[in-house]
Amino acid sequence: MEPKLLPAVLLSALSLICLMVVMRGLQIALTKTTIDPARQKKILITTYSIVAAWVLLVGILSLNGFFSDFSQLPPRPLWVILIPTVCFLIIAFRRTTGEILLAIPPHWLVAMQIFRILVEILLWKTFMLNLLPIQMTFEGSNFDGLSGLLAVPVAMILSKKWAPKLLLAFNIIGLLLLLNILVIAVLSMPTPIRYFMNEPPNTLVGEFPFIYLGAVLVAIAQGLHILSLRQWWLLRKRDEMLQDPE
Known about the structure:
Blueprint: H1 5-31, H2 37-63, H3 79-92, H4 95-103, H5 106-111, H6 115-128, H7 145-160, H8 164-187, H9 212-243
Helix pairs in contact: 1-2, 1-6, 1-9, 3-9, 6-7, 7-8, 8-9
């Protein structure tokens, strides 16, 4: 069997499942708002279209070798993370997004981060097939799986009571862990700034379908953190207004 086949299939399946969960979550969240049904449908169709276009564009570019060129800085695979970051920051501060975030329980966005445990297992399996360097796994310097593990108790606590400090701490820790592995990933690529010289270099993330590790899975993880932090801010503001109506 081709060594890349199993991790490729598993990553594709995990990416698809995560996208389906996110879209289903959005659909349910919209029903909890006062947004009229016609506008809800428009939001869903627009979101589906943008996500489908993104997945298709990234897939086509990776199949044509666009993300496998590591001669430039920043490395091309990094763009599939930077672009969603900007998009999520813009989306998070839209009025409609704020209305949705105020309508859903805080533990929803936290619980969805559990998928990061499966990502770490997948990365470890890929390393065992000698397709990724060890520093990209929990045996090396990748501790991002802790975010998925922490999401379980944090979501359970938040489902029972509002704990703003806990939510803030979880999101900050999660973002720092995500930043850690992103830096390691970039410094493991065969670029002029490569720091980790052990083999193999981190080139797999530029290939299809492994490009979706960044374009979908990392994008979802960081998007959930950004939206959760925005929700945290909105809920604090609402609490302050309720406590001091004047």
